[in-house]
Amino acid sequence: MELIWDGIRRAFLLLVGMDREVLAITWLSFQIAATSTGLALAVGIPLGTLIALTRFPARGLLISLVNTGMGLPPVVVGLFVSIFLWRSGPLGFLELLYTPAAIVIAQLVIAAPIVTGLTLAAVQQISPMFRLQMVAIGASRGQLLWLLLREARLPMLAAVMAGFGGVISEIGASMMVGGNIRGQTRVLTTATVMETTKGSFDVAIALSVILLAMTFLVNYLLTALQQRRRPS
Amino acid sequence: MSGAILEIDGVTVAHGARAVLQIDRLAVRRGEILAIIGPNGSGKSTLLRIMGLLQRPARGEVRLDGRPVDWGRGLLSSRRRFASVFQEPLLADTTVERNVTLGLSLRGVPAGEAHRRARHWIARFGIEPLTGRQARTLSGGEAQRTSLARAFAIEPDVLLLDEPFSALDPATREDLLRDLQRALRETTLTTVFVTHDRNEALRLGDRVGVMLDGRLVQLDQPEVVFGHPAGPDVARFVGVENLVPGRVASADGGLLTVDTGALRVLVPGELPVGRSVMLCLRPEDVVIRPASAGVTRDSALNHFHGEIAELISIGAQVRVLAECGQPLVALITRHSVVELALKVGSPVTLSFKASAVHVIDRGITG
Fold this sequence. Notes:
The complex is a heterodimer of chains A (about 230) and B (about 375).
Chain A: H1 2-16, H2 20-53, H3 59-69, H4 74-85, H5 100-124, H6 128-136, H7 141-151, H8 153-168, H9 172-178, H10 188-198, H11 201-227
Helix pairs in contact in A: 1-11, 2-5, 2-8, 3-5, 4-5, 4-9, 5-8, 5-9, 8-11, 10-11
Chain B: E1 4-15, E2 18-29, E3 33-37, H1 44-51, E4 59-64, E5 67-68, H2 75-79, E6 82-85, H3 96-106, H4 111-124, H5 140-153, E7 158-162, H6 170-187, E8 190-195, H7 198-204, E9 207-212, E10 215-220, H8 222-227, H9 232-238, E11 242-252, E12 255-259, E13 264-268, E14 275-281, E15 287-290, E16 302-314, E17 317-323, E18 327-333, H10 334-339, E19 347-352, E20 357-365
Parallel strand pairs in B: 3-8, 3-9, 6-7, 7-8
Antiparallel strand pairs in B: 1-2, 1-4, 4-5, 9-10, 11-12, 11-14, 12-13, 14-20, 15-19, 16-17, 16-19, 17-18
Helix pairs in contact in B: 3-4, 3-5, 4-5
């Protein structure tokens, strides 16, 4: 027990002292997760909407693939992104391996199916009659898409939360394509693993607390947005 | 240009090998209220979707103002000349007011103008107290009022109503029907109203079309469709009745005198003098006697003299058409025909109780 208490006490001191390195790691983690979630939304929302609203051969197969992708193990993603970005790999010339950009790519691969799948489900649960009625009162194709996404905004915010939650907590891919390089690609999760293996529980606890607090804060803000209702 | 705003020519819709809709010709006149009645599955809603340019027919032509509809680039601007109200009103997840202005903001109508029009129709449909409410908290009747206000606010060239009252309870339906009737009379909007309820069709329709198995089998004035069905199928659906249009000539203590032009009929009701009405009378409620028998004392208030124009056997019963200045139909037993020695040309007296007459208020006075 002594170990835990001591860890928590020293973690508290680290946090209060605003340790420069801890702050840098936190900020980098947030930037990477926010960027990859943003990109995943840019890819997933149009793709999910398109799959939900159109009928084509092999649509069922594609939906199954998307749903499988929602549970893609980060280490598998890390492995394949590593191979692609490897010096002798197909995209090796970009020299991205062990950079924050590599982590963003890997996290995008993890989050995009999540956002696509949840968008697909959100748009699909809107009655086809709603589409007909919106067209019947004069919506153009673009206006209809906007109205549908607006209608699906509650589950869409859940997609944002799930996407962000998936990448901020992910470690396998970040470790493999980022390399946990101090001052460059070290993020909260990889740093926590490293500090734990070193036996520096105080730092590990401090990093975990920050990770939890950040995840909570982001979800709290999104939930507030989602549940916002003007009084009737 | 003809009086038709919307025309349908040789339109066919098929699901697989089965034709679900086959309309040779249908013209909607500018400013009229066209009621289309038919049983479920008769193709009414499909027809309405084609009229609203929401579904392109496999074959045939739709013309707007005499010009064939462009299903390509020009479709959106043509479609925006319509507004539709459906059986199940689906509103956007926002306030009542924003739902009512939605059709206008989609058309790029400036916010001030949209707000003004929305306010007017919100008041017209009696939903002012709900203006700021979230649409998802509304009851079925309130949602349908919002949906109607949304359509009227667009001020479309053609209003399409697809069974707007079918999902509502009778009391709500009656209130809403009355408000809709008033709104329609006020705007003289060209309207196509689809329903399976013949009372709604009689109340609202300037003309009534009957659809059976995807075909428009009769299209005419309400009294012709209900009084003289085009065939046995139509008769079975609409029910054969005496339908007589008229106007309230006087009103006294719950009893109205309706002037039909040829007859003065006493009916129960409370309506202002001058109001246009439709009288419905079932043939089995009409008692027929030889004129020589004179008027016997009974509770019937209406007695008319005439002569038999036609006798048609329908099973054990005989349908008697008598000309009393106004053709009236009675249904009596074959036995009575023999007993009373009724023949074509026989002078007769037709009697019926005031309470046997169903009065439909057409909502127009003057």
